[in-house]
Amino acid sequence: MSKAGAFDLASGVGGKIEKTEVLSAVEKYEKYHVCYGGEEEERKANYTDMVNKYYDLVTSFYEFGWGESFHFAPRWKGESLKESIKRHEHFLALQLGLKPGQKVLDVGCGIGGPLREIARFSSTSVTGLNNNEYQITRGKALNRIAGVDKTCNFVKADFMKMPFPDNSFDAVYAIEATCHAPDAAEIEIGDGLPDIRFTKQCLEALKQVGFEVMWEKDLVVDSPLPWYMPLDTSHFSLSSFRLTSVGRFMTRNMVKALEFVGLAPKGSQRVQDFLEKAAEGLVAGGRKEIFTPMYFFLARKPHSDKSASE
Predict the structure, then answer these.
(1) Distance between CA atoms of 264 and 10, rounded to whole angstroms?
(2) Quick one: which of 64, 73, 303, 305 has the fewest CB in 10 Å?
(3) Among 20-34, 43-57, 172-186, 198-212, which is the least confidently predicted range?
(4) Among residues 126, 182, 132, which one has the least CA distance to residue 156?
């Protein structure tokens, strides 16, 4: 996982946004959301700008607190957050039946933590699709460090308008990314979501475009530990210290100090605040079982008559 430190966090806040413009970007991002008077239709109409601003603002916080893979995972007792995340990425590779030399697409790849892990685990070439320039720049640097820059790459594009010809890849996956497509307020603002969907809507969308759903399940059902445990302030973990209540308190004051002395741009504390609100909303939603980031489905394109006869 990433070894990002305090100064990496401070220098990364805002991503490609000019440091003097970070505060105004925070204010504009907040106004997209209901709790600040924003309308759902406006969020959908401006989802590219909204999601880009979100990831410019929060990526360094994510990497500082969570690591290189920005997702949750089912977790076994005695397993660290890092171990559960790797195991989940291996699970995805196995479910896709990946074979050495295949070409794979990661839709909404973040800074590429999953694609690096899956590429090394399965000996495949993985392309990360991302519309955020800062995350791509960071991902390329981490690819070089990991030694996968010859087999893994990034393409900057909107996943609603993919720039690839049909059948360019042997497999495609997305991990907590397509929720950003435009089509629980604290969760929405803290996670850059235009809106939140029901699992049945996901299934219906798959079927409407012609996919055959092989199987689907909310993976939290069989997880011995709650998916939201890393964000639960009542839980303490040395391996995920930065996510604990003590760790967050220290980060909050560190960000405040770095912003005060000018090492972090103005608005950094505001970003920290809405991420903490998101964490509270996620934990509450998880406890009430009204929100899950772990809904999994495996789908395939139906075999055409041509391919079936060959």
Answers:
(1) 5
(2) 305
(3) 172-186
(4) 132
